[in-house]
Design a protein that fits this description.
Elements lengths: L29 H22 L9 H38 L1
Keywords: Membrane, Transmembrane, Transmembrane helix
């Protein structure tokens, strides 16, 4: 309709062209894969100690099961906490040396 102001809304807006899709990239790294593997292995060890009898009799599987289920998570969290604090300390030391 040309220059008539009554028909300004008849103009077609620009068509939005979607961006080409990128290939899928995982949102996890090798550290998270290793952590998941460790946690699953601990779970399977707990199941093994719980369900199987000990053959030697030197260390009963019930004791091993109780150690793995009760003490190992606390030890794991302690080790992870100490490791995290050490990394934080080393980062602060490296920042001080760079100044």
């Amino acid at each position: 309709m040309g220059d008539d102001p009554l028909f300004d809304d008849d103009n077609t807006p620009e068509v939005h062209q979607p961006e080409p899709k990128r290939p899928w990239r995982p949102r996890f790294g090798i550290g998270s894969i290793m952590l998941a593997t460790f946690l699953l292995s601990m779970l399977f060890v707990m199941g093994h100690y719980m369900l199987n009898d000990s053959k030697d009799g030197t260390l009963s599987n019930r004791f091993s099961f109780m150690f793995v289920t009760l003490a190992a998570p606390m030890l794991l969290l302690t080790i992870l906490s100490i490791g995290k604090e050490l990394l934080r300390y080393w980062e602060k030391q490296s920042q001080r040396k760079n100044r």
